[in-house]
Write a structure and sequence with these properties.
heterodimer; A: 188 residues; mainly alpha; B: 369 residues; 6-stranded antiparallel β-barrel; 9 helices; 37% helix
């Protein structure tokens, strides 16, 4: 199998949220990212954080559904990590010059921008979730995150039937929506 | 169209769960009603946001799993401090979710987790004095002796100051051997130190001798030698159940000082007919875990444990018969425990203020980390 084919297979695994695929991605590219960070004023901890974020960018990119791998996955991972690391250095005002390139890089500005937008939305939703209180939070998480069936939720939360649970869920959703948009529209 | 109906429709539309016919009807509605269309657009946008959030959140959890596995395999190195900082923090966050999930039943325990109050008996002034004297290197025997005596005289043991991470309540059941009852979920919080504090604010070391997670009961013993025995319990611990409608009062530590509350037994059984518990109508807050529930005649009938989240004034307390059962367990397990409930009931017929005065020395703040 060619490297490109292997890369595609790995991406499919990541899209399917397969743990082994994520682990494989770490095994294949983590050391490269770590070397880049350490060569550019970072620590091992920074590298671990950065790799996490890089994998999330990759995941988000796959999720858009139009990820045509035009270079090696290795190059893509390196480019994203490098760009994110540069941003971090700038934020901390530790940035002096372009990082020394250890590997070939491709432009990834769009991906990073997309990621920052999603990351921002994520934070707003997370904050809203933190504010709605119980049992709303658990109820919504059971339905939207854990994708549990309404019948199961009704039973776990002690509602008499799925319809009651559903009504409660919508009440919670209205509250979450209010909290979310209050913050979201502030920023827009 | 009602709000919930609209949301339901939007959600089924987004998920593609609508029948062709319904879809046509729905799209027709939107076309002819711009206001409704606007609401649908907003709802669809919001659902999409929620979807993104959920998928990222789940993916992050997955990522964390993989990372901790690789850290264990030493493929990834994180410095200890960082691992503590980030992973433990995340774990705590998830643990909180798990705890919530576990209490999905709609009840929460009444324990204050995450109080950071310094638990220390060291006296800064005293420390300073000692320091100063050392600096000047005064070697007079007399002073040295005096210094040695200070801690003893003031009963200040040299314990490392620690930060309490939780606070709850407990009460004495054996004043001869200093055994205190609280909830198992309280003791579980104390990974390192368990400390009891009396109503005068004096702290004593304690250790757990019995923890029954299923019944949520624990017995702890004050191990501090500086603790002075209290006289026999002024209340008796009832062996039978709680009577419906019985007026009760309770004392506990939802804040840094003892707080009194009143109520009545509102049901003979607990959440989902759990017969270990009875239901009390009162206001109890975080920190009330382990609070004694007492009748006007001085019968201790239950131990506060949890409250229902979606209802007010619905508090669940473990029936006192379970305390007797727990004491028997300790007797069986530990021959040297000497544990025995010794009470000399003396609250009957007294007015409430006098009852409280007689009792408050027996109710302790439980804290630790």
């Amino acid at each position: 199998m060619s490297t490109l084919e292997q890369d595609k297979l790995l991406l499919e695994g990541i899209a399917a949220e397969n743990k082994d695929s994520i682990e494989q991605l770490y095994k294949q590219h983590y050391n490269m990212v770590q070397s880049m960070v350490i060569a550019n004023a970072g620590t091992r901890d920074d590298a671990a954080d950065l790799f996490q974020e890089t994998v999330i960018v990759l995941f988000e990119k796959i999720k858009t559904g139009n990820f045509e791998l035009t270079c090696l996955l290795k190059t893509f991972v390196y480019s994203v990590a490098r760009r994110l690391w540069l941003k971090k250095l700038q934020q901390q005002q530790r940035y002096t010059s372009q990082p020394d390139d250890l590997e070939e890089a491709v432009p990834v500005e769009d991906e990073i921008e997309h990621h920052l937008k999603l990351d921002n939305d994520f934070t707003i939703m997370e904050t809203a979730m933190g504010k709605i209180g119980e049992p709303c939070k658990s109820l919504l998480q059971a339905y939207y995150l854990q994708k549990k069936h309404m019948n199961v939720i009704a039973q776990e939360f002690g509602y008499t039937n799925a319809d009651n649970a559903k009504t409660q869920k919508y009440k919670c959703l209205v509250r979450l929506k209010k909290l979310f948009f209050a913050q979201y529209k502030n920023i827009e | 169209m009602e709000d919930t109906l609209l949301m339901d429709a939007a959600e089924r539309f987004a998920k593609g769960e609508m029948s062709a016919e319904e879809k046509i009807y729905f799209e027709d509605l939107r076309k002819n009603n711009p206001e409704l269309d606007q609401a649908v657009v907003e709802q669809l946008f919001f659902l999409n946001q929620l979807d993104n959030y959920s998928s990222t959140k789940n993916f992050k959890a997955l990522l964390l799993d993989v990372e901790s596995k690789l850290i264990t395999e030493k493929f990834i190195t994180r410095s200890a401090a960082q691992t503590q900082g980030k992973l433990v923090q995340l774990w705590h966050r998830y643990k909180k979710d798990i705890a919530v999930a576990a209490s999905i039943a709609g009840i929460v325990s009444l324990l204050i987790a995450s109080v950071v109050s310094s638990v220390t008996k060291s006296n800064p002034k005293l420390d300073l004095l000692v320091q100063k004297i050392n600096d000047q290197a005064i070697k007079t025997k007399k002073i040295e002796t005096a210094l040695k005596d200070i801690p003893v005289a003031n009963a200040v043991p040299t314990r490392q100051p620690i930060d309490a991470r939780f606070r709850a309540t407990g009460f004495m059941i054996d004043a001869t051997n200093n055994y205190i009852v609280t909830n198992a979920h309280v003791v579980k919080e104390a990974a390192h130190h368990l400390i009891v504090e009396n109503n005068k604010g004096i702290e004593y070391d304690a250790t757990a001798v019995y923890v029954n997670v299923a019944q949520d009961l624990a017995i702890i013993k004050i191990t501090d030698s500086s603790f002075k025995h209290l006289p026999a319990l002024p209340y008796s611990i009832r062996k039978s159940g709680a009577n419906l409608g019985e007026a009760i009062f309770l004392m506990g530590y939802p804040k840094a000082e003892i707080v009194y509350g009143e109520g009545y037994v509102s049901a003979r059984n607990g959440y989902k007919m759990d017969t270990t518990y009875c239901q009390i109508s009162t206001s109890a807050n975080e920190g009330n875990s382990g609070s004694p529930v007492i009748t006007k005649n001085g019968d201790l009938i239950a131990v506060i444990a949890s409250k229902q989240t979606d209802a007010t004034g619905v508090v669940f307390a473990i029936k006192s018969a379970n305390i007797h059962r727990a004491v028997n367990e300790v007797k069986k397990q530990k021959d040297d425990s000497k544990i025995k409930i010794t009470s000399a009931p003396s609250l009957r017929g007294l007015d409430r203020e006098t009852q409280i005065k007689k009792m408050e020395g027996y109710v302790f703040m439980i804290k630790g980390n």
